[in-house]
Design goal:
heterodimer, A: Dipeptide-binding Protein, domain 3, 4 domains, 5-stranded mixed sheet, about 30% helix, disordered N terminus, B: mainly alpha
């Protein structure tokens, strides 16, 4: 954007200087004024940011198609690869992008849409409205789907329809969760989430439990640089922080409701306003041995809301969990083990999202409330090198290419009496050893050589041939909620126009992408709900969307057709360039 | 295959190449003779060697800081510029042209050249110039390498640049890490994937070749060997999808500048210049280092006599 601005001024100056000379000739003053006053139309410029192929080969390929299609449509598109931590920083903290392509981890509850889109989050950092989008109708619908006083399905249906028209972002496809597993391990999933790891660890092995950790392969840059659970600008091992930090309750994929986790019980009261009384297990401890009590719960909620704990005017909210916390109206300590949370008129299924926020130990994070720079607390800058949580696993050791997690024996859920169903079955391993490879090829070779048991990082479909030819491992693939999305910056002069965003959203051939780039291991987003990140199995009325009609064939746009789309929306072409 | 295994394999293959090269081009007699009087040889070039060591240690020990500077403070991503410039200026991207000749044999050849050939090309001149009657060429080599690394580091801090394979895997293939993914364990220790402009592979190889040309009277056979190897290394960086054509051009320019510095300046002269221009504080520090070094020299000499 800066570049564009400077060009304008340069042109203005040149035009001014040139015309000044000309205007000394009689009769040219009219031309001088019109040149000096008007800078004239400019070609639409878009900078698209995504990960380099090292981090996400599929995103880089999607990017390639998108860039070429934008250019063919007359847009001056530049494509900028950025490492994960830096990309997240640009998108979620700085808002420094025009268009981005990333893999979203998936929306676990409809209410997650509120965090993505509600205008009250436009100034917030993190996944809270990274588009700076604002629309009053959408705000209303987001509020009514959350409220227990309205018909949720009706509000959501209306919301999806409205989002189809306004296209603040668009979903391309839902990739399967693909990984490799050694044949001696009877595992059908490549884990990403804490409960999936728990599942994998409980797997029975043919030759009995192993006296050692399970070896899990991951790859990527800077995976062991930061372990801060409340920030967004870091790269991390999938699911790691969820193994170390535990919430009051967890969302279980098979059930609609959350199951109590560090909470022994959660009792809901929906008679008037929505309230939850949460009782912690007796004897709950942090990894360092300190007791976890109701104060820690209250602290976590207040701290995430303002990590400076009131030290400065305004607040320094944590970049994560803010949208969930906004549902919380109050939190009160009843006794050492009990807290009461009140949610106003929010419906229970949305309110339960607050219970899934990981708890932070007050004795470690309270000192981090210190304000160390302008509107930055120690908490949002800390690397948190030795995370202390209350999760099933505690940090043991970490190097640049490995990370060891040991079972946390004092965890209340490891007590055979308290054990919930989900933790059934003896763990077949004593902990987790993560082996960190520099790239996907080295990770796959480590698997085929038997140096790791299974993989937990995304494997691009182009790498799967290596597996199919080899005998040392099998491919496991499961559907997931994660999706590749294209996000638009509402502050960009062209992207503020919904018609423009709608046309842009059509410039990627979703079915072609799934068959060519994903090797069929993905579901294209073809319905209204799936375009906003809600999978088809989570919503009944999967109405097809016109946004998914691709103006072209086999991934390449039909230039004339796209031009007429833009021209119908009021845009013009000049020397094949789309101008605004 | 672990890092140790990869490194061991590299060491074995390169050692074999070095021994063969040394026997054929230097000859056993000269090698043995120079080993017998290695002390004065080391003393003479202690300062340039120390400078190279300092630059390498700085490079290695400040990775965290330089990465932070490069990515978070300066944040100057020139990748789109490199791609756009080559698209505008050249009828077809040279990386695409080279990759169109792709075959398993050619890939094996270029992977070999990129890793083993490159290591050999860099190490052999150390042997070759060390055994000469005068240490001038050796000092020139070390100074030129130091200049390469120092200037290269500066560019890496100033610019974020991803290679073709990382930028667009639809247009460019990442052949090296497809064929030999473990090599990333080695290259990862040496460099990050955001440091491709200029290509240090190209600049160091070309430096060796330019110096080979300048010392052609002493090692006539080394000129064609290093020439073929250097050009192959430069081509391999593009064929394997690691570098842009612009990186190779910039790398070659950097080589020319480095050789110029190596030929026209001495380590002592550079330190003297530093002392004069950078003021008493920094100058005092480098002076102190120089004093210490000559004290060590004296100490070694005294012990010998």
């Amino acid at each position: 954007m800066d570049e564009g601005a400077s060009r304008v001024s340069r042109r203005t100056i040149l035009a001014g200087a040139g015309s000044l000379g000309a205007s000394t000739l009689a009769g040219c003053s009219e031309q001088f004024w019109s040149r000096a006053e008007d800078t004239g139309p400019e070609q639409v410029e878009l900078t698209i940011k995504t990960l380099p192929a090292d981090d996400d080969a599929v995103a880089a390929k999607l990017m390639s198609q998108l860039r070429e299609n934008y250019i063919a449509a007359g847009i001056d598109a530049t494509h900028e690869p950025l490492g994960r931590a830096d990309l997240y920083r640009d998108i979620f903290l700085e808002g420094d992008y025009d268009v981005f392509v990333i893999r979203h981890p998936g929306l676990k509850e409809f209410d997650a849409l509120r965090g993505l889109l509600h205008s009250s989050f436009t100034t917030e950092r993190g996944w809270q409205n990274p588009f700076r989008f604002s629309d009053v109708t959408i705000d209303d619908l987001l509020e009514s789907q959350q409220s227990s006083n309205a018909d949720r399905d009706e509000s959501l249906a209306e919301l999806f329809e409205f989002l189809e028209e306004t296209a603040p972002y668009t979903t391309i496809a839902y990739p399967h969760q693909v990984g490799g597993v050694r044949p001696d391990l009877d595992v059908s999933i490549s884990p990403r989430h804490p409960l999936e790891y728990v599942d994998v660890l409980a797997t029975e092995r043919a030759d009995g439990p192993r006296d050692g950790p399970i070896a899990i392969g991951v790859y990527g840059e800077g995976l062991t640089n930061r372990f801060n659970p409340i920030v967004v600008d870091q790269n991390s091992i999938p699911g790691l922080l969820g193994l170390v930090y535990d919430p009051l309750a967890r969302r279980v994929p098979s059930e609609d409701d959350v199951v109590p986790w560090l909470a022994e019980s959660v009792s809901w009261d929906e008679t008037d306003d929505t309230r939850a009384t949460v009782t912690l297990h007796e004897g709950t401890r942090w990894h360092d041995g300190a007791e976890l009590d109701a104060d820690d719960v209250v602290f976590t909620m207040e701290f995430l809301e303002d990590t400076s704990l009131g030290a400065i005017d305004g607040s320094v909210p944590a970049p994560r969990y803010r949208a969930r916390l906004a549902l919380l109206e109050g939190v009160t300590r009843i006794d050492e083990r009990t807290v009461e949370l009140s949610f106003g008129s929010t419906r229970r299924s949305a309110a339960a999202r607050v219970l899934t926020i990981p708890l932070l130990p007050e004795h470690i994070w309270e000192p981090r409330s210190e304000v160390v720079a302008e509107h930055r607390t120690e908490a949002v800058l800390a690397d948190n090198e030795e995370p202390i949580g209350a999760g099933l696993f505690r940090f043991e050791s970490v190097t640049a290419d490995s990370l060891e997690l040991a079972p946390f024996d004092d965890h209340v859920l490891r007590d055979p009496v308290a054990q919930p169903e989900i933790l059934d079955g003896e763990s077949a391993f004593t902990g987790i050893h993560f082996r960190i490879d520099p790239n996907v090829g080295a990770m796959i070779d480590a698997l085929l050589d038997g140096e790791i048991d299974l993989t937990a990082s995304n494997i691009p479909p182009s790498e799967l041939d290596t597996f199919r030819e080899a005998s040392g491992a099998t491919i496991v693939s499961t559907q997931s909620r994660a999706f590749y999305m294209i996000g638009y910056n509402y502050h960009h002069s062209s992207l503020v126009n919904p018609h423009f965003r709608r046309i842009l959203s059509r410039l990627i051939d979703r079915e072609h992408v799934v068959s060519e780039l994903f090797d069929g291991l993905a579901e294209p987003a073809m319905s209204r709900n799936s375009l906003v990140g809600i999978t088809d199995d989570a919503w009944d009325d999967n109405r097809a969307s016109s946004v998914t009609t691709f103006p072209g064939t086999d991934g390449e746009i039909a230039t004339q057709e796209v031009r007429s789309l833009f021209e119908d929306a009021g845009y013009q072409y000049e020397n094949d360039a789309l101008i605004e | 295959m672990s890092l140790v295994a990869v490194a061991l394999e590299l060491a074995l293959i390169v050692a074999t190449m070095l021994v063969t090269g040394a026997l054929a081009m230097i000859g056993p007699r000269r090698l043995v003779a120079s080993l017998r009087e290695f002390r004065w040889r080391l003393e003479v070039c202690a300062l340039p060697v120390a400078m190279l060591a300092v630059v390498l240690v700085i490079r290695w020990s400040t990775v965290d800081i330089t990465m932070r500077l490069e990515r978070r403070v300066i944040g100057n991503n020139i990748t789109p510029l490199l791609f756009g410039m080559e698209r505008a200026l050249l009828p077809e991207n040279p990386v695409i042209v080279l990759q169109s000749f792709q075959s398993p044999e050619l890939t094996s050849f270029f992977v070999f050249v990129y890793i083993y050939g490159y290591a050999f090309l860099l190490l052999f001149p150390f042997l070759a110039y060390f055994v000469l009657d005068s240490m001038d060429d050796f000092s020139t080599l070390i100074l030129a390498f130091t200049a390469n690394y120092a200037i290269g580091l500066l560019f890496y801090i100033l610019f974020i640049a991803y290679g073709p394979r990382n930028f667009d895997p639809m247009l460019f293939e990442g052949l090296l890490y497809d064929a030999f993914p473990q090599s990333r364990m080695l290259t990862n220790r040496v460099n990050q994937n955001t440091n491709v402009f200029p290509s240090l592979h190209t600049s160091l190889s070309m430096t060796v070749f330019f110096l080979a040309w300048l010392t052609r009277a002493k090692y006539p056979l080394w000129v064609p060997i290093s020439g073929v190897l250097a050009v192959s290394v430069a081509a391999s960086t593009m064929y394997l999808g690691i570098h842009w054509f612009s990186d190779v051009v910039a790398g070659t320019a950097l080589a020319a500048i480095s050789v110029y510095i190596g030929r026209n300046y001495t380590a002592n002269g550079l330190l003297e210049m530093g002392r004069r221009y950078l003021g008493p504080h920094v100058g005092g520090l480098t002076g102190y280092v120089a004093d210490r070094l000559s004290a060590i020299n004296r100490f070694v000499r005294d012990r010998r006599s």
